[in-house]
Amino acid sequence: MINHHPPLELLFDYATGSLPEPVALAVASHASMCSDCRKQVDAVESLGGALLSSIEPEEVSKDALRSVMARLDEPEVGAIRCAAAKDRETTEVAPEPLLPYLGRGLAHLAWRGVGRKFDEVHLNLAAKGFKASLMRLKPGAEMPSHTHVGTEYTLVLAGGYKDNGEQYGRGDFALKDSSHEHRPIVDTDEPCLCLVVLDAPVKLTGAMGRLMNPFLRV
Amino acid sequence: MDNDHLSNLIVTIANAGDRKAFADLFKHFAPRLKAFAVRQGVGSTTAEELMQESMLSVWRKAHTFDPKRATASTWVFTILRNKRIDMLRRENRPDVDIEDVPERASDASSADEDYQTRQTRDLLRHAMDELPADQVEVLQKAFFEDKSHSVVAEELNLPLGTVKSRIRLALSRMRAALPESQI
Questions:
Q1: Alpha-carbon distance B60 to B34, whole Å?
Q2: Would you kindly state where each structural domain of chain A is located, as residue ranges?
Q3: How many Å apart are CA B179 and CA B82, to the nearest integer?
Q4: Rounded alpha-carbon distances, angstroms, from residue A149 to A159, A176, A204, A215, B60
Q5: Which of A2, A10, A44, A46 should we substitute to test contact with B (largest number of B Cβ atoms within 10 Å)?
Q6: Which residue has the higher pLDDT, B107 or B51?
Q7: pLDDT tens across A25-61, in order?
Q8: Once rounded to an integer, what is the mean pLDDT over residues A114-137?
Q9: Residues of chain A contacting B164 with CB distance shorter than 8 Å
């Protein structure tokens, strides 16, 4: 049961195509697991479809059809990265939109231990000012208390955690900005795997501080 | 060409790799895709390129089209949206895999589902016509000018809350215009 969803405007901006790639990844991944949000996205995409079908057509170049037809048999590049990530564990845990970013199975990613609390792997996204990573928090791990200068988008992929009395599990989407100080605690027996997107450095409010700040550990 | 026929063309491409069906689909969508891209503010040359890349993607991704979930126009819109973002070098936009969404009891196919899909486009168009101008303005900025809520608010010199509420209103009107299972 998914209890925490992206706000409607985020779903809307995703559907029109105005979100930056890392945030779009988090929203698309959530929507692929949540039929309610998928329906919201569908509704906005339907608006786009209605706009497309009612638009005044524009003349295309004379050889457009011929040049596209000539390329129909060209191999597609992106599909290969997806195929490489399709082992059983990965397909069960990672939502489809995430697969092209992994390029291999979850177990074979370049995980890096950060203190004793979690492992992390950076996702290769080029968007400026953003950082996207997978974090695998150990059972019982308490993250240092922190707030954000910008916004943190978290999507839980496995396990779960408790934060300010709220429970988060697979599929839950959390959006935190400078108005929230939070301190998630993993409360499942299995590790908690999250997709985390940050659009500005985390501001640590606790003593454990600097070591844990993802922007200081590039 | 009605949406039903367009859907059938996409399904034929998926099932049989039919080039004739692709040419027919191209005739309908290529000029609209180009016009949409032009409306979004890219130059004519880029719009042409974007159209061609999108049509190539239509051919490659035809197998992911599910006529029960989306009209042909809506599906093609999402292809253009993704291609445009690729082109703007925001890299590969993640797309939602429809098969990944858990089925709900109410999603189980019913006899009139196809009929409802057929009605969707007309209903949406009608609902768009009925929207108050201030809501349409916000929607068009969002779609054609690729503006996020906060940028739309800034440009229209409106509080962010007003933009949000106009979008919410527009969406709820669109939802009200659609049959339950389409939303």
A1: 19
A2: 106-216
A3: 27
A4: 27, 10, 10, 12, 42
A5: A46
A6: B51
A7: 999 999 999 999 998 898 889 888 888 988 899 999 9
A8: 84
A9: 9
Does B69 sit within 8 Å of A20, measured CB to CB?
no
Written as six digits, the tokens of A129 are 């000012």
Query: Coil, strand, or helix at residue B145?
Result: coil
Q: Which residue of A has its CA nearest to B76?
A: A49
Could you check whether B3-94 and B113-182 share the same CATH topology?
A: no
Average pLDDT, chain B: 76
- Which of B26, B107, B121 lies nearest to residue A49, judging by beta carbons? B121
Phi, psi of A148 (to 5 degrees): -125, 140
Instruction: Name the residue ranges covered by the structural domains of chain B.
Output: 3-94, 113-182
B170 CB neighbour count, 10 Å cutoff: 23
Rounded CA separation A52/A56 (Å): 9
CB pairs under 8 A between A and B: 203
Structure tokens at B124: 């949406």
Report yes or no for ipTM above 0.90. no
Whether residue B113 is predicted with pLDDT greater than 50 in this model: the reply is no
CATH code of B113-182, in short, is: 1.10.10.10
Rounded (10°) angle between helices A35-54 and A21-33: 120
Q: Assign domain B3-94 to its CATH architecture.
A: Orthogonal Bundle (1.10)
CA B180 to CA B183: how far, in whole Å? 6
Residue A214 in this model has a pLDDT that exceeds 50: no
Q: Report the candidate in B121, B145, B130 with the shortest Cα–Cα distance to residue B67.
A: B121
Q: What are phi and psi of A94, to 5 degrees?
A: -85, 130
Written out in words, the top-level CATH class of the domain with range A106-216 is: mainly beta
Residue B120 has pLDDT above 80, yes or no: no
Beta-bridge partners for A86: none
The number of angstroms, rounded, from the C-alpha of A94 to the middle of its chain's C-alpha atoms is 10
